Amino acid sequence: MERIIKKYPLSKKEIKKIINFPKIKLIHTSTSIEILEDKKIFSNRKIFFKDENQVNYNTSGTELRKLEYILGDINKKKYRDIIYLSNNNVNMSATLSSLCSKHNLKIEIIETSCDLNDSNYIISKLYGAKIHKSPEEYTKKLINKIIRDKQKDLTKTYVLNEQSIFNIAGILSYINYGIEIEEQIEKLGLKTPNFWSAEDDTILGLYLYAQLRKLKWNFTYISSSIKYKDIKIKILSALKHLKTDLDFDLSKINIIKENNAKRLKEKYKKILILFANTKGLLLDMNSSVKSMFYLMEKIKNNQIEKNEEIVFINSGNFIEIFSDKDILLK
Asked: What are the tens digits of pLDDT across the range 214-253?
C-alpha cells in the first residue's frame, strides 16, 4: 500500500481505501442515534445515545468490530489454531470461542486472574475452547510450550495478542464506523458533537476519522488509567499501520480520570444496588455504566452547557436504566 500524503480532508471513498484490510463481517445491523428525552434530567439539552449492544453475540459492538479485522487477518494467513491471552477479559473469551466454533478454528485461552468457573468460561468450553490458568509471569513459557506441542503435528499457531493487528483493529473498525456515524450526525443536524465513551478504541478511531475528514468533533473519554502519552503512542501505531501521515490535535480529547472521583464511585454502587434490588437485576458495574452516571452528575450540577451536543456511545452490555430515573436520582 502506498503511503498517503495529501491535503486533507479525505473523502469517504479514500478512507475506505486506506482501511481496506481483510475482515469477516460479523455485524449486520446498525444502531441509530436517539435523543434522550426526559424533563427531569435532559430537558432542553442535546443529549443523544447510541447503543452498541449486539445481542446475537452477547457482547459489544466494540469487540465485534475489532474481531472482524482479527478474523480477517487469521483467514488471510490461513491459521486454524489460535492462542488468546486473557487477563480477566471473559466476555472477549466467550465471544472468541463462539466465533472460532462457527469458523472451524481451534482456540486455547490462557487466563491470568479470573476464576475458570466463571460462566463465560463454561460457555467457552461448551464451544470447544481449551482453557488454561497461569500466573502472568509464566504465560510466555506456557504459550511457547503450546506452540512447540502443536509444531510436532506441523500445526502453525496464531498468538492473537502478539499480532500487530490486535492493538489497532479496534481503531481501524471505528475509523470505518465513522462513515455511518457522520451520516447519522448530519441527519440530526449536529454541528459540533462531543462523543462520550469509556472505550479508548472507540474514541481514538472516531477521533482519527474526524481528523482525516476535518470534522469539528470533540471527544470525552472516561478512564481510570490511560494518559495522553499512551493515547499518542496508540495513534502513531495506527497511523504507521495505515501508512498515513497526519498531524493530530490531542486537545480535542478530554480525558476524565474516574478514579479521582471516589465519592461518585460510591454513589454508583448505591444507585446500582438500589436499582438491582428494585428491578430484580444483576448489574455489571462496567465502564459505560460509570460513564453515564458521571455524565448525569455533571448535568445535575449544571456543568454541561445547554447548547452542547453530546453523543454518548455505549460500548455494550449496558442495562436499560432510563425507564425509572426517579430511582437513579435519589
From this structure: 999 999 988 767 777 777 788 888 877 777 767 777 778 8
How far is it, in rounded angstroms, from Cα 156 to Cα 283? 40
As a whole number of angstroms, the distance between CA 109 and CA 93 comes to 7
- Cα(91)–Cα(273) distance, integer angstroms: 22
Position 22 confidence tier, pLDDT thresholds 50, 70, 90: very high
- Residue for grid cell 430515573: 325
Selected residue with higher pLDDT from 8 and 166: 166
* pLDDT higher than threshold 90 for residue 309: yes
The DSSP call for residue 261 is -
pTM above 0.90, yes or no: no
Contact 313, 34 (CB under 8 A): no
DSSP 185-215: HHHHT-SSEEEEES-HHHHHHHHHHHHHHT-
Query: According to the 3-state scheme, what is the secondary structure of 279-324?
Result: HCCCCCCCHHHHHHHHHHHHHHCCCCCCCCEEEEEECCCCCCCCCC
Q: How many helices (H) and strands (E) does the chain have?
A: 11, 12
CB 204 within 8 A of CB 230: no
Position 79 pLDDT exceeds 60: yes
Domains of the chain are 12-57+166-328 (3.40.50.1100), 80-155 (3.40.50.1100)
Alpha-carbon gap, residue 134 to 160, rounded angstroms: 17
Q: Is 154 exposed, middle or buried (0-12, 13-18, 19+ CB in 10 A)?
A: exposed
Show Cβ contacts of residue 283 under 8 Å, excluding neighbours closer than 6 positions. 272, 275, 276, 289, 319
Amino acid identity, position 107:
I
CB 129 within 8 A of CB 104: no
3-state secondary structure of 34: strand
Which candidate, 309, 284, 272, 289, places its Cα nearest to that of 197?
Answer: 289
